[in-house]
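Sharing in case it's useful to others searching the archive later.

Someone asked me privately for the predicted structure of Histidine phosphatase family protein, so I'm posting the question and my answer publicly. Question first, with the sequence:
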Amino acid sequence: MRHGAPVLTGRLLGRTDSPATEAGIAACVAQAEGLEVSAVVSSDLVRASACAAALGGAATIDPRWRELDFGEWDGLAAAEIDAAPLGRFWDDPDANPPPGGERWSSLTARVAAAVAAVTVPTLVVTHGGAMRAALAGLCGFGQRELWAFDLPYASVLALKVWPGPTPTAQIAGLW
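And my answer, the predicted structure tokens:
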């Protein structure tokens, strides 16, 4: 599940820890109704962890589910960033990471490690970038295909995962 709408929107929020709005938290609670899970795991950023806490029960905090670190761009709106390097980043975020930021391959590696730690049906409250990184690693989607997925705040992406040396997954739902 992607966290609820943050107070700050329209910005590259990686490590910038903007809290979720009350409406954003309520949207996550509504989306989680009826889900049958054995555990809840959350990014350590408050916009995700507050949503997980509102679901009731104890959530395990795992920083590997954090959003991509946008470095010097973190917290900025796209209009505040030079269009040329930003465009190169969107075209190939591994070859063109934000200045002082994280490479796409680093995000996908840490999310892969977090996915490998999931052993029971689990609701993970995380971020759009981490969700796309999971899709890249588990389903083999390329950068262009990843951006074809609309992952609005409080959306749920259900995956059936087959663990193993090369874990794979099937998309079971997106709402």
